[in-house]
Amino acid sequence: MAQGHKLTAKQWISRASFCFGNVGHSAFYGVMSTYFIIFVTGGMFNGLKTSVADKLIGLITGLIVAVRILELVIDPLLGNIVDNTKTRWGKFKPWIMIGNIVSVVLLLILFTGIFGLAKVNWVLFAILFVIIFVLFDVFYSFSDVSYWGMVPALSEDSAERGVYTSLGAFAGTIGWNGLTIIVVPVVTFFTYLATGQYKEGPIGWFAFAAIVSIVALLSALAVCLGTKEKHNIIRNSAQDKTTIREVFSAIFHNDQILWPSLAYLLYSCAYVITNGVLFYLYKFVIGKPGEFWIVGIIATIIGFCTSPLFPVLNKFIPRKWLFTGGQVSMALAYVIFIFFRSNVFMMDLGLVLFNINFAQLVTVLTLTDAIEYGQLKNGQRNEAVVLAVRPMIDKLTGAISNGLVGYIAIAAGMTGTATAADMTAHDIRTFDSMAFYIPLAFAVLAIIVFLTKVTLSEKKHAEVVEKLKDQLAAGHDNAVVGATISTANAATGVATKATTIYAPVDGKLVEMKNIVDQDGKGFPGKGFAIQPSSNHIYAPFDGQVCFTFGTRHAFGIVSKDGLELLVHIGVGTVNMRGEGFVSHYNDGQVVKKGELLFDFDRQLIKESGYQDTVVNFFTQPHRVTDVSPIAYGSTIKHGDLVTTVKFK
User: Fold this and answer.
1) Cβ atoms 637, 616 nearer than 8 A
2) CA-CA distance, 136 to 25, in Å (whole number)?
3) Collapsed DSSP state (helix, strand, coil) of residue 383
């Protein structure tokens, strides 16, 4: 099987390069989304009147919120620009480098306070800031869209793409939390070199931004030099990208996208807001900014543990309880942050509890399952929404966090040259209410929403897929997936057509009526089955793969003449939730007869208590007018002729 192949040196280099790419990429975003606000509130406007400084802080905070929300609309547009790019270096790499270089230059200009312009003419500063920040955000988004968008171009193998995504997420944890570890030492050290004072000064913040910018450029260069796009992947931008209108439309027509999204939004708001104010907690409330690095150390260690632990726990604990457990852990952390922050041990315990969370992984998997749920419920299959919803929520919560953090800093008097000694009891209460009490309420609400409204459990999803399979076999109209080739052909007339089907797998031909599940229920529909003798599935004819179930145990393929066939690997294998199945194509990819499409682990299927029979049935049986005789009982090889189907 594909996952058993020994990796080549090029594959190791490609993986390592892509992984390192997100160290700098994620750190760079962290500088802008979290620490730039701290620089703005704490050092950019030193020397200005407090009234003017607060106005500029409010302007910058409001602008960042507005641009983050605007990103929800412009990201699909930028994605389309990237998709339509054609160069000798591919479509993604040019934008990764251009996006990084331009955004680095603009970021460094912003960290100079636009060369101190606010002290000379704050009106002109405000105008230029708007222009520079918008340009910065556009070019960073180009880089961001390109980095994650190139994953399908790096490998045809689904499992390998999962490896790239996991490596990127892992490296992002290092980049993001690494900032927490180095920010105070770096800023104070370079401020000391310039002024002789151990504090967080403007020159120190500029040095911090410059160091991260260098890492970001090196990371981008590593991705561009160490990876190679594969140009035989079919990428249809119209299918891969979705507009904000389409996203919201799909959400509100699918309650099992809506409710998990709301629960995740509540969790994400709590998590991002608290992360944004932890520096203020250590500097202005606890009065120990030099200990802020421990926040990054704990977050990194817990992040390393929770991601690989999730699939192990999920074998024994349903997703809803993993989500709930994480939110309860977060709620306990807030109690510690509010009432026990004077105790070092308790604070460290609170940071551990705060970072023990599986919300992101649970949400991604639940949204993925909602594809089939929506397909069964209303006939819509919205893969693009799954890709768009979570990043959209992350951007929205980032905007909310940026706005609230800036407001907290002003409302609690944590701006300019203020120190912990300047904080009054009223300031602390103001800080706690917005930094901890509101996020605590969000965490509790997330639990309530998930437990009461998210009904799409692993078990229910398996039932949904089985019902959908039955509908597809029966040819129900609301089970037809997407705008496939056959839909267009069917509308053109009723002329009889024919497609010859070749064996997709080695094995023995079996009648479908002989295939029954563990409950003795027969396999519905019209088609044929093969008792396999190999672990490989090949294209049964020239055509296009139109969809794949999220559980990866079945896929639909349509011939160039318009015959729709669903290849169902195993019986009961929906419950394996993709384990042991590796695809070698993109949904929407045009394939040739005999092209390898899937590897599947027959031994694992049998060990799991299921049948490995490969069932092939027509998803529009009412269109089939004749099926030539099938030699049931005979042994065949993949590529051997099975039958010729005539249909209208």
Assistant:
1) no
2) 14
3) helix
CA 201, 202, 203, 208 dihedral sign is positive
Task: Order across the sheet with 624-627: list the strands.
Answer: 497-502, 641-647, 624-627
553, 568, 584, 638: which is the annotated catalytic residue? Answer: 568
C-alpha to C-alpha distance for 578 and 574, rounded to whole angstroms: 8
Alpha helices per DSSP H over 379-484: 383-411, 425-432, 438-453, 458-474
Assign 227 to helix, strand or coil.
Answer: coil
Local structure of 493: helix, strand or coil: coil
Could you give the residue ranges of the DSSP H alpha helices within 33-156?
A: 36-39, 50-83, 93-110, 113-116, 122-149, 151-154
Task: Indicate the helix (H) or strand (E) that contains 316.
Answer: none
SS3 370: helix
Whole-number Cα distances in Å, 38 to 20, 60, 76, 425? 26, 12, 30, 22
**3-class secondary structure, 436:** helix
Residue showing tokens 């607060």: 54
Distance CA 296, CA 474 (A): 55
What angle is formed at CA 333 by the lines to CA 328 and CA 339, rounded to 5 degrees?
125
**Lowest mean pLDDT: which of 94-103, 120-129, 389-398, 598-607?**
389-398
Tens digit of each residue's pLDDT (9 = 90 or more) over 537-567:
999 999 999 888 878 899 989 998 889 999 9
> Residues 469, 568: contact at Cβ < 8 Å?
yes
Q: What value does the CA radius of gyration of the chain take, rounded to a whole number of Å?
A: 28
pLDDT of 167-205, one tens digit each?
887 888 889 888 888 998 999 999 999 888 888 888 999
Residue 384: band (very low, low, confident or very high) from pLDDT cuts 50, 70, 90: low
Strand 611-618 and strand 543-548: the pairing is unpaired
DSSP 179-192: HHHHHHHHHHHHHH
pLDDT at 489: 44
Active-site residue flag, 568: yes
Q: What is the pLDDT of residues 66-86, one digit of tens each?
A: 877 777 777 667 766 876 788
**94: Cβ contacts below 8 Å, ≥ 6 apart:** 85, 87
Please write the tens of the pLDDT for every residue from 387-445. 667 777 877 887 787 778 778 888 888 877 788 888 999 999 999 998 999 999 999 99
Q: Give the integer Cα–Cα distance in Å for 40 and 273.
A: 17
Distance CA 381, CA 478 (A): 10
**How many residues are recorded in the chain?**
648
Residue 350 backbone dihedrals phi, psi, to 5 degrees: -60, -40
The reported pLDDT for the residue numbered 616 is 92
Give strand pairing partners of 626.
Answer: 646
Structure confidence at residue 159 as a pLDDT band (50, 70, 90) = low
Measure the CA–CA gap between 113 and 289, rounded to whole angstroms: 23
Q: Report the b/e string of 73-84 with b at 16+ CB within 10 A.
A: eebbebbbebbe
Q: In this predicted model, what pLDDT tens digit does every residue of 220-247 receive, in sequence order?
A: 999 999 998 765 333 333 344 555 566 6
Task: Say if CB 585 and CB 545 are below 8 A apart.
Answer: yes
- pLDDT, averaged across the chain: 83
Burial class (CB in 10 A: 0-12, 13-18, 19+), 201: buried
